[in-house]
Design a protein that fits this description.
heterodimer; A: alpha/beta; TIM Barrel; three-stranded parallel sheet; 10 strands; B: mainly beta; Ubiquitin-like (UB roll); five-stranded mixed sheet; 1 helix; Aldolase_TIM (chain A); ThiG (chain A); transferase (chain A); Thiazole_synthase_ThiG (chain A)
């Protein structure tokens, strides 16, 4: 049988991934739940934040990097919480030092606390600096195709428009913009932020996204590990549906059973 | 001498190295990264980098995030 399910790997900055679902590590109850959810998601790329070490606490407390060991996952340090290009660049440099020269980062520069909407001016500035310093930059941005084009032109290795606000679970609010970005972009496009449930992830993939990055949709589900499994299937299903090509929409009905040979004919 | 460590004032013996500071905090061998006055201090230089009065030191690690 022809192996028609064989897909190309997702290629980002020289890495090749089978899974097109990328996950975060925030908001989980504990590290056990984090590890179980990541395992159920099948994700190979896992993002995390960089923060000040708590001083004076038990030095033997478990570390996130024990849960997601760098030899088993492709780690994606992010700049969440940064509101200026300067802070984002500092954070990426700290992450590179933390991970012994690791170059792949998720750049996000935020505009304000209540929307966490990307500040694209600062994002462009930070991207330019990081790329000049040798980083591979996957960039979180608005769903504005012109900004996306500029970020690609600068050399970002993946463009990651929001579906809706971070942590909102409102899904993909402007699928038309996401499609415009996909059509014009040569590097991978991933929806990052806004996914609420499995159908949102499937929709992103059906639009032609190369992948989906999510955190809250899994971590804040009533049963995170089960939702992680659902998201794995949704991303796979959406990808296969995209590759298969959906049927054309019609204004009128079209019977699946033949008219010929009806007993009332 | 006094430094700013992760945003808080801290008094230290003069001439302490970054490596000695890490040891005194019980962080030896932990997965951390150190920044001094907004410049990375690579692991290979922890033992030879001496702190001076007024240094702003950040010690960071990985935590859950999306």
């Amino acid at each position: 049988m022809t192996d028609f399910l064989q897909d190309q790997p997702l290629r980002i900055a020289g890495h090749a991934f089978t899974s097109r679902l990328l996950v975060g590590t925030g908001k989980y109850k504990d590290f056990d739940e984090t590890a179980d959810a990541i395992a159920a998601s099948g994700a190979e790329v896992v993002t995390f934040a960089v923060r000040r070490t708590n001083l004076g606490q038990d030095a033997d407390q478990p570390n996130l990097l024990d849960v997601v060991p760098p030899d088993r996952f492709t780690l994606l340090p992010n700049t969440a919480g940064c509101y200026t290009a300067k802070d984002a660049v500092r954070t990426c440099k700290l992450a590179r030092e933390l991970l012994d020269g690791h170059k792949l980062v998720k750049l996000e520069v935020l505009g304000d606390d209540s929307t966490l909407y990307p500040n694209v001016t600062e994002t462009l500035k930070a991207a330019e600096e990081l790329l000049a310093d040798g980083f591979d930059v996957m960039v979180y941005t608005s769903d504005d195709p012109i900004v996306a084009r500029e970020l690609e032109r600068l050399g970002c290795c993946a463009i990651m428009p929001l579906g809706s606000l971070i942590g909102s679970g409102h899904g993909i609010q402007n699928p038309h913009n996401i499609r415009l970005i996909i059509e014009q972009t040569s590097v991978p496009v991933l929806v990052d932020a806004g996914i609420g449930t499995a159908s949102d992830a499937a929709m992103a993939m059906e639009l032609g996204c190369d992948g989906v990055l999510m955190n809250s949709a899994i971590a804040h589900a009533r049963q995170p590990v089960l939702m992680a499994s659902a998201m794995k299937k949704a991303v796979e299903a959406g990808r296969e549906a995209f590759l298969a090509g959906r049927m054309p929409r019609r204004q009128t009905a079209d019977p699946s059973s033949p008219f010929a040979g009806r007993i009332n004919g | 001498m006094q430094i700013q460590l992760n945003g808080e004032a801290k008094h230290l013996a003069a001439g302490l190295t970054v490596a000695q500071l890490i040891d005194s905090l019980g962080l030896r061998g932990r997965r951390i990264a150190v920044e001094r006055n907004e410049e990375i201090v690579p692991k290979s230089e922890h033992k030879i980098t001496r702190l001076v009065d007024g240094d702003r030191i950040e010690i960071v690690h990985a935590i859950g995030g999306g």
